[in-house]
TrEMBL record:
Protein name (database record): LytR C-terminal domain-containing protein
Chain segments carrying region Disordered: 54-93
Transmembrane segments: 24-43
Stored Pfam families: LytR_C
Domain LytR/CpsA/Psr regulator C-terminal: 95-185
Protein's UniProt keywords contain Transmembrane: yes
Keyword check for Acetylation: no
Keyword line: Membrane, Transmembrane, Transmembrane helix
Amino acid sequence: MGGQYRITGDKYPRLRRPKRRRRLVLAVAASTTALGLAGWGTLQLIDVFTGGDDQAAAAGPKADCSARVSPSPTAGEAGRKPSGTPESYPAPGKITVNVLNATPRSGLAKDTAEELKKRGFRIGEVGNATEEYDKKVKGAALLLGAKAAEDTALPVLNTQLTGARLKTDDRKKATEVDLVIGTGFKALSKQKDADAALAELTRPKPTPTPTKTC
């Protein structure tokens, strides 16, 4: 053009976005917002109408939950100590032990009886085992007692040695038991080990807490 046309003045033409396009964008944004609000409101209404059933269903099992507890003892059982519990084990001083030697080693019954006496047990008969058990006890010892001594006096005596076998017979007195020394016997347990075993046996057990079943 060779400089024939010049733009003079301080005003220039401005490029403007067409109004129709702006209105279209605003309409789309408004529609999207409206749809979102409508969806959220629908979900709230669903929760309102169905939430009560869910809460009732969730509360149902809790209402039916019951604590399982042990039945209370009857009047006849209240004064009797259950067997196999710390309260049922008699003290060594209330147990009479007959020490019988079923081995060829002489003096074994006497020495064992003296040691048991030092540990608080009462000593009854001391001597050789009867023909029924003489040289027939292969283990460390055989502890004999009444059926009632199975969970009372016999476990207490059993804390004084390891490797003994417990057996019941038809005797009536539960606090008198036999210690038949076998061929595998070496010695009673050490005093501290025997005391620890006796303490563990007679230690009160924790009371079980009720359990809920749902």
